[in-house]
Design goal:
The protein contains four helices and no strands. With 79 residues, the chain is mainly α.
């Protein structure tokens, strides 16, 4: 799930419902990508958020997502 609204209740219920609905046949990843203006700014500059602001929460989350995917695929060597 990308750009979840982190306010309580409704978004949490939605995330729980998605995980429950898809956990049987598909893997639901743990990483979430936070909503942030830096993502929009990076897009207007023609750059990825990782290149534009590597230490922003979305950039960190995208790197975590990549590590998570590599781990699921068995391709991650280290932490």
């Amino acid at each position: 799930m990308t750009k979840p609204n982190t306010r309580p209740n409704r978004p949490r219920r939605l995330a729980d419902t998605l995980c429950e609905a898809y956990s049987g046949d598909s893997r639901v990843l743990d990483t979430t990508i936070p909503k942030a203006i830096r993502v929009v700014e990076s897009s207007t500059m023609g750059k990825s958020v990782i290149a534009f602001d590597p230490e922003s929460p979305p950039a960190r989350a995208y790197r975590q997502l990549a590590r998570e995917i590599l781990g699921v695929m068995g391709l991650l060597d280290g932490p």
